[in-house]
Amino acid sequence: MKKLAIGLLLAGSMTSAPLVFSAEGLELAKKSGCLACHSIEKKVVGPAWKDVAARYKDEDGIRDKLIAKVKKGGKGNWTEVTKGIPMPPYSPRVKDENIEKLVDFVLAL
Ligand code: HEC
Fold this sequence. Notes:
Cytochrome Bc1 Complex, Chain D, domain 2; 6 helices; 56% helix; binds heme C
């Protein structure tokens, strides 16, 4: 039931990414604890993931940079949004493989 609700939510809010992948990505984000501070549409503690995707859409090598950021944490890219709160490190709490999937998910928004 929960999965269905998420799927429907995404179907309404997303246009480009395929639904199956998106629902999976969101589920992974939830399991990994990301949604405590992020949502797709709105700033929570961290920036809205749609804003992250929009900011970097033309930037070369951004996938690797964001993977490194999620692994090691960091701050300074969204100070105007977060007032300087840092992004916590997620490696090895979240497997590298899943961090890559999460970054792909965010960049596809
Ligand atoms: C405790 C709160 C918190 C949690 C939990 C969290 N984030 Fe963040 N995240 C932040 C903050 C704050 C920033 C902004 C950092 C900055 O200003 O550079 C951020 C930034 C980001 C960015 C953009 C990085 C950049 O350099 O522009 C991505 C991508 C991201 N988070 C992904 C994730 C993923 C994936 C997870 C789960 C594995 C996660 N976050 C969990 C707080 C959080």
